[in-house]
Amino acid sequence: MKLFAQHGAQEGDKINEGLSRGLLDGVIYSPRDVSLANLCAKLDFLEQNHATVERLVDPQYYSIFLNATQEARLGYLLEDYGDYFQPRRRGQLERENQIQKDLTAALTFQAGLKVTRLIAPNILIPNSLNSIEAVIAKNFIRLAASQHQALGDTRPLFVTLAISRNALGDKQDLVEFLNEITLLDDPPQGFYVLISARNSEARSDIYNMDVIANWMFINHVLTLNGFEVFNGYSDILTPFLGAAGGAAGALGWWSNLRAFSLNRFAPSPGGGRLPIQRYISQALLNRITYFELDQLRGLLPGVLNNLPTDNLYDATNGSEPQRNLEVVQSWDAVKALNQSLATGGQRQSLNKCQEAVVKAEAFYDTIQNQPIRLDSKSNAEHLQPLAEGIRLFEKLAELD
Most C-beta atoms within 10 A of its C-beta, which of 143, 174, 177, 192? Predict the structure, then answer.
């Protein structure tokens, strides 16, 4: 299971640090957050200094309907990426020739970049897999490979599959949708899968048994049909998606780089403050605040991962890390979870995932007997949806 950096605003040296420590297998760049000149420079640097690292660019076409909205935060997409990022209405994309033109424009643009794979654009399916948006999305998927072949580019083609968690409610619709996109006359090599929450802070949107089960099922079905699956914004769910068959997952340094949402492109509410730095504990399958870590590490040393990046959370400094290094610890922890859970055959990996959840529940039970109260994001509320999601996935995939 590969681990990618999900690029975004205020990158600084975070990705370089992750690469220098050998924690990352690739980078998925966000055009919204980087000028074209800087993007080209970053791709050149990776090619020259990290030749084995995957270099990908998410075209972010799923935000296209916001292009005509003045308040939308589209950043450099408007300034530097107009070759393919032009205002669109849904009605325009109901015409197949418009989809072909937009596919050609986006793929031609990427073909001129030093990427290792091309990612075809697509819209977000917002409410139902039995909708006009789903038909448009299927047309993007169906037509992508022929437009790619017309370019004569030999690099692998991945197609964006962006689905709102609200569109995953009907199991039969999901099965029929996956059947259609896996029985293509001219298929791509893989899929770049995004599951959208209402906003990046809506933890229960993603940590929901149906969402987890269906996201795993998407990975399972696509992989079973010979496609590679790269999951964007998958965060700590990465090893669970790997157990279902996924080839890669990704996460970045802000909450909107760990959970996918179009809210990231919406008008800014303004104000706010920097989030509290957190630590991913493998034992808890969760992030806890650095001051919770500082309290727990003496009482329950098992909360620590015993990985090199534990040193970034120095106990003599109250366990508070440098803000720009928090994500490095996240990458280290998720990479280690990938290596411990998403290995071996599928049945073996799923068993390991189930065991990890059971152990996390026991660890949280132990914490309840300690003189410490965890905040709402640090508690055990994610574990029941995880456990039930795995079981439901096994039922969907007929593995039980």
Answer: 192
Q: In angstroms, rounded to a whole number, what is the distance separating the alpha carbons of residues 13 and 9?
A: 12
What is residue 187's three-state secondary structure?
coil
pLDDT in tens, 220-268: 999 999 999 999 999 999 999 999 999 999 999 999 999 999 999 987 7
How far apart CA 35 and CA 339 sit, in angstroms, is 35
Q: Scanning the structure block, which residue is given the tokens 């970053």?
A: 42
117 - beta bridge partners? none
Do 260 and 282 reside in the same domain of the chain? no
Give the pLDDT confidence of 185-200 residue by residue, as tens digits.
999 999 999 999 988 7
| Alpha-carbon distances of 93 from 65, 100, 123, 129, rounded to whole Å | 11, 10, 9, 17
Which residue, among 175, 262, 183, 279, has the nearest Cα to 220 in the 3D structure?
Answer: 175
Amino acid at 206: I
Could you list the residue range(s) of the whole structural domain that residue 324 is in? Answer: 278-396
The DSSP bridge partners found for residue 119 are: 158
Number of domains in the chain: 2
Collapsing DSSP states into helix, strand and coil, what is residue 282? coil
pTM: 0.97
3-state secondary structure of 278: strand
51, 25 contact by CB (below 8 A)? no
